[in-house]
Amino acid sequence: MLLSLLGVCLLPLVCRVAASPVQPFAPARRPLVIWHGLGNSYASPGMLEFVSLIKEMHPGIFVHSVYLNEDLKEDEKAGFFGNVNEQILTAAEQFKNVSELQGGFDAIGFSQGGQFLRAYVERYNDPPVNNLITFGSQHMGVSDLPLCSAWDLFCQLARRAARGGVYREWAQENLVQAQYFRDPEQLDAYLEHNTFLAPINNERPDYRNGTYAAHLSALRTLVLVLFSADKTVVPKESSWFGSYAPPNASAGAPWGGEKTVVPMRLQPLYRNDWIGLRTLDERGNVVLETCEGEHMQLGDCWQPLVKRYVGEVLDKHAAYPVIEQEVLGLN
C-alpha cells in the first residue's frame, strides 16, 4: 500500500496509473530530477521514502529518479563500475525522453550524484536545470577512496582495484570512484590521465571548454551542502569545492601534521572562472549550507532547502489532478 501512495513514476514500464474516485487538485510545479549516491539505486526503499516526503511537501510535483539500469542491483552496481562520461550521456538521453522534463527541472544530487548532475549541466543542460542542490558531493574529487562496509562486495572490489592503479587506463574507464580521485601528491598524473573530474572542472591547461562556464552560470541557484562530520568524502570541503593543497614542492617534503584545505574562492578554477562558478557566486547564486552529522545523515536538514529551491509553482491558474501511481515489478 505504501508504494501505491508514493506518486512517483520511476520507469514508464513499471508504473500503473489509477485514477481515484475523488481527486484533489494541485498547482502546476517545476518537476524534479534526483540522482542517487553510491551504494544505492534509483528505487531503493530510502529513495522511495524521500520522494514520498517531497510529494507531501510539494503536492502534484513530478519526480524522476535517474536510473542506469532498470534492475535495482545492476543500477547499484553501476555506481561502482562503469564509465562516468557514458553514464552522464545516458542520463541526458533519458531526460530528453521524459515529456514532463522538457520545460526544465530542478535537480538534487546525493553524494556522487551531485557532481554527475553538475556535469550534465555543463555538458548538455537540455532540457535545462533551474536549481541544483548537491548533498555531500565531491566537486573537487576525493583524496582517499570511500571506506566500505564488511559486507559490501561491490565497494570492496572497486576499492581494491582502484588502489592498484587509480590513474591507469583500465581504472579510468571502469571504476567510478577512480574517475573523481584527485590526489594532491600526483596532480600531474591526475591532469594527464583523469577522464572525468579534470575535464568537467576545466583543469586541463591544454583544453578548456567555454560551454561549461556558460551552462553552469545559467543556473538560477547552486546549493552546495557539506556534512560537518563527513569521513567518507576526504576532504569534506570538496562538497564546497575545497581540496587539499599539494605538498610544498619547494621544500621538497611531504605534508606534516594537518593538511591544508584550499577553499572554493581560492581555487584556480574559481579565480579564473573556468566553469562559471565565480560568475554564479558573484551574482549571489551559490549557497553554502552545512548539515550536522556524518555523510548523508540528512535528518531534517534537507527540508528547508527542498522547500525553498524545489517545487516552484509555475502557473497558479493551472491545476492538475493528484493521481495515484502503483510501482510494480521492481525486483
List the topology elements:
Layout: E1 15-18, E2 25-29, E3 32-35, H1 45-57, E4 63-65, H2 72-77, H3 84-96, E5 105-110, H4 112-123, E6 129-135, H5 153-163, H6 169-174, H7 187-193, H8 197-200, H9 210-216, E7 221-227, E8 243-244, E9 261-262, H10 268-271, H11 277-282, E10 286-291, H12 302-309, E11 313-321, E12 324-327
Parallel strand pairs: 3-4, 3-5, 5-6, 6-7, 7-10
Antiparallel strand pairs: 1-12, 2-11, 8-9
Name some characteristics of this structure.
single chain, 331 residues, alpha/beta, 6-stranded parallel sheet, two-stranded antiparallel sheet, 12 helices, 12 strands, disordered C terminus
Can you put this structure into words, describing what you see?
This protein is 29% helix and 18% strand. The protein is α/β, with parallel strands linked by helices and 331 residues long. The strands form 4 sheets. The protein has a 6-stranded parallel β-sheet, with helices on both faces. A two-stranded antiparallel sheet has the order 1-12. The longest helix is centred in the first third of the chain and has 13 residues, at 45-57. The protein is globular and about 60 Å long.
What's the helix-strand series? EEEHEHHEHEHHHHHEEEHHEHEE
Low-confidence stretches: 1-23, 249-256, 323-331
Q: Strand share of the residues?
A: 15-25%
Give the % helix.
25-40%
End-to-end span in angstroms?
17 Å
Total DSSP E strands: 12
Give me the Rg, rounded.
20 Å
- Please tally the helical runs, counting DSSP H or I stretches of 4 or more residues: 12
Specify the overall morphology: globular
Give me the side-by-side strand order of the main sheet: 4-3-5-6-7-10
Sheet/helix structural class: alpha/beta
Main sheet overview: 6 strands, parallel
